[in-house]
Task: structure prediction
Amino acid sequence: MNVFIQTFGGTGDEIRSFFTPGRINIIGEHIDYNGGYVLPCSLKMGTHALIRKRGDDTARFASTNFDLQAEIPLDDVAFDPAHDWANYPKGIVRLMQDDGHTIGGFDILFSGDIPNAAGLSSSASIELVTATALNDVFSLGYEPIELVKLSQRAENQFCGVNCGIMDQFAVGMGKDGHAIYLHCDTLDYKHVPLNLGGYTIVVMNTNKRRQLNESKYNERRSECEQALAFLLRAKSASTSCQFDTKLTDLTPEAFAELSHLIPDETLRRRARHVIQENERVKQAVAALESGDMETLGELLNQSHASLRDDYEVTGLELDTLVSEAQKNPVCIGARMTGAGFGGCAIALMKKDAVDGFAEGVIAGYEKVVGYAPSLY
Ligand code: GLA
Result:
């Protein structure tokens, strides 16, 4: 509150406060844009926003995490590279205006504890906290799911990042103590209790910023589309090649029969990851619901191997972090989480052994990579 007043002036009257979390994805990586199943869950870490209406048509954005501040006239909300992080909340304003809403002037101060560029959805979190705050303060009447979709559109259309729906959904629809079993095509979902028995999930940050992430991400999306196009072409030519319209409509068994229709070996591996990962999500939910932690752990290990070998989105840092975790007998499964190419991994491990585990992973990682990871 004090920082808000120091930054924007005035008194504490009429300042409203909002919060949205970050997320990890337990399993189901690079599946959302292929229309299949994912299993993310929201974190305690997140983004706070303090907001106050102004009497004019100006919006001012500030953050306790960054020096950069932005001030914009609300009749001209356009992407500006110089505004850096503030383009995320600006995108929300713009998309709400495009929906026909009038947004009056406001000052907003963000404060977050999600590490940036770590793959824990700090961008989705700032989008959703802005969307939630503006919806409330200006009585716009959006339902939570509409704010989720609007936030994804803002990231796609305003910021030019071609992400799927998972991050915004996980951030906007999370529930304490639960993961979200989401079908990314229909958006049908259920909250699955995260009863991990004697185990816990440790988030491990490679501390490698996800450079190059976006171009590689788009490349993978396009490879999936190309693989699918080969299968769809074969489908229209033959009655023996039958499946719906997405890679994730195929079971691993059906794919084994059809994979020869994809002539390119790399594309075949990309498709195989997607189809097998989608299946693993269903198995992971069953394991979670029956309290079978060993199976859940094994699925995490399989997921990482597939992302490393077939999808090729890991790299030295994530592979080292995951293998250092897997080496330790108190850990029953580990994998990268998020887009990959750096960012974070998760480990499923015995609850009472976190300290010793952390020491071993940090030392082993530092030896190979040259700097330390962070564990949460
Ligand atoms: C990023 C994207 C998500 C999703 C994951 C990979 O986090 O924002 O939409 O595609 O990568 O699963």
Observations:
- DSSP finds eleven helices and eleven strands in the chain.
- Residues 1 and 9 are 11 Å apart (CA to CA).
